[in-house]
Write a structure and sequence with these properties.
22 helices
Length: about 650
Amino acid sequence: MQPEEEPMPDGQPVARHPDWKTADNLVNLLRHNAENHGDGIAMRERERGIWQEYTWRDYLDRVLCFAAGLEELGVGAEDNILVLGDNRPTLYFGMLGAIVLRAVPSPAYPDTTPEEITGQMQREDIRFALAEDQEQVDKLLAIREDGHETLERIIYDDPRGLTGKEPPGVVAFTDLVERGRQRLDEQPDLSQDLLSRATIHDIAVLLHSSGTTGAPKGVPLKHGHILSGVRNAAAAGYFREGEIHMAYLPMAWVGDFIFSVGAALVLRFSVNIPERQETALHDLREIAPTLYFSSPRAWSNMLTRIQVGIDEATGLKRWLYHRFMPFAVELERRRLEGRQPGTGERFWRALGEILVYGPIKDQLGLARVQRPYTAGEAIGEDVFLFFRALGLNLRQFYGQTENCALAAAQDPDSIKLHTVGKPFPGVEIRISEDGEILMRADNVFDGYYRKPEATAETLRDGWLHTGDAGYMEDDGQIVVLGRVSEVVYTASGERFIPTYVENRLKFSQYIKDVCILGQDRDFLAALVAIDISAVGHWAEENGVPYTSFADLSQKTPVYELIRGVMDHVNAVLPEGLRIRRFVNLHKEFDPDDGEVTRTRKLRRNVIDANYRPIIDAIYEGRDSVDYEAQITYETGESGVLRRHLAVADVAPSGEK
């Protein structure tokens, strides 16, 4: 029986399981792929320099064996299972194995602190955990010894340091798979029984909000939510069947589950996993994906890497780059304004593709990318134009964990620098009277985990209240300004959203993080964390010596560099909302200090508390401040860090 197919705009079908109307879920899609495309490559992982391949048949086999072994341990429907570690095939197989049992994988970021993990385990009654390696196992054992005795079993992937020395309650993934395989051999009907349990209404994964204003909230996404989101995006041309995808983003982030699991199962992606996070950029070139997502910050870092490489290249390569790249950027800028290139410009662009643009894309591993995306925050105009000038059809999209990260994206033929595009088919968006973006669609979640009050606040009158402020242009494209909750006022009553100003400042490669101050104040000011890579390279090129991050941040030329960024942004801000003063901090904002979330969203209340002496110095008109901070060393001992920081003024726009 051939699978039912749904046509897509370009005529390519989206295959669906033959019984999708009654059995539409991730497990049946995996079975369908194994039965109909069993020898196709579902997943590849680079291990010790060698690519290990898993077919769809291998994928299903490991998932079923693990599910059978997991059930023997006592895991059942609605049990939450902690997943902790970097991207690994075993962790993906493990999540699907839990889903087979109608249990719920609950991934956490690999660098999550023991205290944060303990909170997640307590909120979700977690008894079982799947961990990547000894480091994560040790973290969980310490949590268990500190009183979380309900953690019954820890399953690990990487055997190094653990094989033959497993503490009580710790078992290898491979051992559990073999126990499950034995059960399947002894019970011929068990495989079919396992495959029949999941339904479209089951929770497939328990993800978490960023936790910018408190403990993260659990966001349960059901099979139906995920499949609807993927198919809506596919109908808009966002995904294609058979994509080559690199899974390197954190497994706890909604985008990874949607790309690497949901879309991979629906559209038979080949998912490629780098050896380590440190080798991801190197492995990217070998993978040569057709689909690639990266955050604005990562695209900016990639641009910095290109610029550093060009500075160190031969004279001929530098000449070619500086001859062709500005031309391509200006050509792309004009194209986005609706002006088409002439015959001579098209010839020069084609020549540049051979000499410059193509080689750069090949060196980066982006030569085959047809669908490059960015999201999470606004991307700098210079960065956006650069990659589009290379010939990459880079587009922005918009989504949240609560809607499977798939709500809207820019159309490839209608790109605007300030918008996130139009809603996907099946997604309805409108703007409330107070300027909030509202949404309804089948990919919108049903409510937070054990948070009825938060659910009632977010899901009202049949609409998801996104919490984002924005507006819709006449052509249906959406502009996102920032969080509604972050709308604040200066002392004179000027309304502004700090994240909007912050994002414009972070368009600069020299600023990694920034916190805008100004609520109930006479003017706006900024706490700046420089980007050590970009500013360090700039310092070397301009003969500015330095010894450390803190030393570099306080150099007078660096203050002048950041002041130039402030001047540029002030030129487009209303007069009452221009930045008047700033401080270059001695360090980056740190998630371990609670200043940012794991996805680098600011926790403003923590920043206000941690940097109160600096903030006071800014608004008291002082030109410097001696700052002391309590620090804890790796040994557990504490100390006091003392820094002398300059406070700089920014001239009003147009003044020098």
